[in-house]
Amino acid sequence: MSHGRHAELRKELENQIFTGKLKPGDRLDETKLSEIFGVSRTPVREALLQLKAAGLIEMRARKGAVVASIELKDLLEMFEVMAELEGMCARLAARRASVEDIEDIRNAHNACQTAAENKDYDQYYALNVDFHEAIYKAARNRYLASETIALRNRLSPYRRTQLRNSNRVMESFTEHSQIFKAIEDRDVNMAEKLLKDHVNVQGASFSDFVASLP
């Protein structure tokens, strides 16, 4: 039973970190968590250990478990790697995507439109994840997909803050249109370049990004 509970609990806490309900620096109190979830402290402790192993929380002296925050320099290095991984996914997707894969990417892209037009950040972020994952799947490299998803999850709280910039949601949607077209046209180099630029924080988007950090 304990195994099932700590896995459920870990998923729930992960979800709260990814959706920004729990923010970098927030404290995770074992006693409170066991009360909220109606479990003993053992599954809570196990869930926290797993989140720590994934780099999502850190243990601090006298504070206990807190949601991990990332130093700006590390954050930029991680975004740089993220851009390379996503670019590689796009390049392989442009070469390998089946007709069904193209259709899945198209559907995921179209689903983003209403959320983008309504500036519904949270809905757009969730659908944006589906769009990117459809591309990872089309790349037909499971190891690459799992590495990309792991880093994306780690950066999730910071990627969400990017979308809160007033024009960013529509910009992101427009970039998706171009990325999708390049993959559909089998334009390997263009697909890679567009997705790399889409993920990387550079130029004006860099200062907006830094200003938006929690």
TrEMBL record:
Entry GO MF terms: DNA binding; DNA-binding transcription factor activity
Domain HTH gntR-type: 3-70
UniProt cross-references to Pfam families, sorted A to Z: FCD (PF07729), GntR (PF00392)
Key words of the record: DNA-binding, Transcription, Transcription regulation
InterPro entries assigned: GntR_C (IPR011711), TF_FadR/GntR_C (IPR008920), Tscrpt_reg_HTH_GntR (IPR000524), WH-like_DNA-bd_sf (IPR036388), WH_DNA-bd_sf (IPR036390)
Cited PANTHER family: TRANSCRIPTIONAL REGULATOR, GNTR FAMILY, TRANSCRIPTIONAL REGULATORY PROTEIN
UniProt name for this protein: Transcriptional regulator, GntR family
